[in-house]
Protein 1
Amino acid sequence: MIRKILSASLLAALFIATPALAEEATIGRPIEGGSLHEGHLDMVAYYVPVDGDLLEVTATFAPKAGGDPQRVVMGLANSDSVAFSIPGHPGSLYAFSRSGKEVTVSTEADTSLRADATMP
């Protein structure tokens, strides 16, 4: 009996301690695409070199439930990083970072934020 209670408590603690789902993609060449599919949005991104050392990253976010896609275009210099959420989807955090000619894109979907966002 105690073993069952401890197992259930441990299982519940694991779910509480890991509120985020994470996914990552690295883009290593111009026009090479990377995609993420965690959470309520699908995202695809690529970059092209512009103005010397700047890389222009384009990311398109499409809701899985349908609706209009949203596009973000940003310039990243070496060692730059940025993180943001998409309007209407505050529970998902997207991060873009650059190291040399590689751009890493990641998402972290915090399920507790999604639950709070739907509360009245």
Protein 2
Amino acid sequence: MTRYLDDEALERSAVVANCAMNRERSLTGSNGYGRELGIDVLAELAEGARWLDLCCGSGRALDEAAALLAGRAEIVGVDLAGHFVRARPAGPTLVTASVTDWTPDGRFDLISCVHGLHYVGDKLGVLARAASWLADDGLLVASFDARSVRLVDGTARRLTAELRRQGFAYDASRRRISLRGGREVRFPFRYLGADDQAGPNYTGQPAVDSYYRADS
């Protein structure tokens, strides 16, 4: 029988605490944000734009972007562990918080999450909240493995169909989800809890499965 953990227990889990997937990732290069997200991050950030990176790790990529943008955009990173680089004076704002309950003070032109959702319990809840934080023409893009979302009374096909209905695009081969344009999203699934003993996912690292039941 699957053991469902709530958010508080999950965040104390050794799998989440020892996650190193995004700790020191750079902005560019073979292991950089551009490659993982499939976008040119800086090209998405026009003068005065705002970028939010969820599960930002050390914030190294954000600090690199801030140096290149020289104050032309506002950059915010959120991470549970809070082990951040020492950002330069005009660097990003780095916040220690859980992405499941943190709330920003405005909307963003770009919201990203590189391999962070693998360690989050209510993955669909985070996607829905992030969608509401997007500017009208903003872009949300994140690493996402649909197989880690378990519908106890349904199928993965139903999940991907619902994601498309809500406006998300899901690339199953690259395990990447995206959404253009802020909106209110309500998934017809109730979050039950998470399993931190799911084992390695496609990255080869132990990850977390999230369990949902369809709303009655």
Protein 3
Amino acid sequence: MGHADGSVQALYAHITAGMAQRLVDGLTEVWRAALDERRRLSPGSPVGVLDRLLWAEG
């Protein structure tokens, strides 16, 4: 991380459970917004897994 003494690595070499949860929550929000936008364009898809997701969330 650019520090010769290792102090920064000792502080930031891991993530906390709270940090991981915030990441999951943020990515879930982005995913749901993307599905909503895709559904707005067209409610179905010839791709089976996407079609099921579009209908499940709607």
